[in-house]
């Protein structure tokens, strides 16, 4: 059976989280009674202070960690038990992959992740991210290396993209081109994006949805028009920044001084120096 004029948005996976509770190995609460409903083809910004639980959530969505049965549903399946096809999760472990610091050329690296198969995407990404094919990775700048990494991570067409702030080294133009590329992807093919970031420059027109997290909880989520209209009116970049600043100040006031409460810094300590998490368990 053929589908006439398929709408890419409708065919994309939805992300549903229902009463998700998650505890780390030491017993501390990672996520608390979390609920989300992100529609097919959406582009969601995950906003929250350091330690709010964004990475924890993204890792559970990616299926890298086991969530309680029935609490996460992506495109109709449980990502951990079913093993999701087409999920790309780009976070710290991926950034720290040592291969991008070795004496290797760009075409070989991109070929190692399917570049010779997805040639059109490869060439498009190289153009958008302004990558020079003659670079050798041990002699490029951090930002240039990051651009090659992004191309590597995005060549294979994903259905779900989970981004844990990985654009910090990009210059303004590269980041803007990169975000435009992602937006375009959700408009031309069935895919859904969740992006955790602290960098709000040029983002006001990018998200379809916002999720505000604090202390392992979702404080609010919804379509950006709704949140913006409710809270600050039609929004440009600086207003989105003002909204987030207000959220973070409120979160800090609610939380109070740390004094051992959900301390930062545990996140990557126990992972054999590679970055990543410890042996969490579910609750
Ligand atoms: N393995 C672990 N054991 C215990 N606590 C942990 C572990 N990993 C992370 N945490 C804690 O869980 C909380 C949420 O961490 P997470 O990395 O999800 O935050 P985040 O919102 O991504 O922060 P950031 O913006 O700094 O990246 C933090 O307080 C962190 O210290």
Automatic annotation (TrEMBL):
Chain intervals with Basic and acidic residues compositional bias: 258-272
Entry's Gene Ontology cellular component terms: CCR4-NOT complex
Region (Disordered): 258-283
Biological processes annotated in GO: regulation of transcription by RNA polymerase II
GO MF, one example: ATP hydrolysis activity
SUPFAM superfamilies: P-loop containing nucleoside triphosphate hydrolases
Gly residues biased stretches: 273-283
Top-rank taxon: Eukaryota
InterPro entries xref list: AAA+_ATPase, ABC_transporter-like_ATP-bd, P-loop_NTPase
One Pfam family of this chain: ABC_tran
Residues annotated as domain ABC transporter: 15-240
UniProt xrefs under PROSITE patterns: ABC_TRANSPORTER_2
Keywords from the named record: ATP-binding, Hydrolase, Nucleotide-binding
Protein name, entry field: p-loop containing nucleoside triphosphate hydrolase protein
């Amino acid at each position: 059976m053929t589908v006439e004029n398929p709408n890419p948005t409708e065919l994309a996976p939805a992300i549903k989280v229902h009463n998700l509770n998650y505890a780390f190995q030491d017993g501390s609460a990672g996520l608390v009674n979390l609920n989300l409903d992100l529609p097919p083809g959406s582009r969601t910004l995950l906003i929250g202070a350091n330690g709010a639980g964004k990475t924890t959530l993204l890792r559970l969505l990616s299926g890298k960690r086991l969530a309680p049965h029935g609490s996460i549903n992506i495109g109709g399946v449980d990502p951990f038990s079913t093993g999701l096809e087409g999920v790309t999760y780009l976070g710290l472990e991926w950034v720290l992959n040592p291969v991008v610091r070795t004496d290797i050329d760009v075409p070989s690296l991109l070929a190692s992740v399917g570049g010779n198969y997805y040639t059109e995407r490869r060439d498009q990404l190289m153009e958008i991210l302004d990558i020079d094919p003659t670079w050798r990775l041990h002699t490029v700048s951090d930002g240039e290396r990051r651009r090659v990494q992004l191309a590597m991570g995005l060549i294979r067409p994903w259905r779900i993209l989970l981004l844990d702030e990985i654009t910090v080294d990009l210059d303004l133009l590269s980041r803007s081109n990169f975000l435009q590329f992602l937006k375009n992807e959700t408009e031309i093919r069935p895919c859904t994006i969740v992006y955790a970031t602290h960098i709000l420059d040029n983002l006001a027109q990018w998200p379809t949805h916002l999720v505000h997290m604090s202390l392992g909880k979702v404080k609010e989520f919804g379509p950006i028009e709704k949140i913006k209209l409710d809270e600050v009116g039609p929004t440009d970049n600086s207003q989105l920044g003002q909204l987030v600043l207000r959220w973070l100040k409120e979160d800090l006031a609610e939380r109070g001084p740390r004094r051992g409460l959900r301390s930062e810094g545990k996140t990557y300590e126990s992972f054999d120096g590679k970055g990543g998490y410890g042996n969490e368990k579910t609750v």
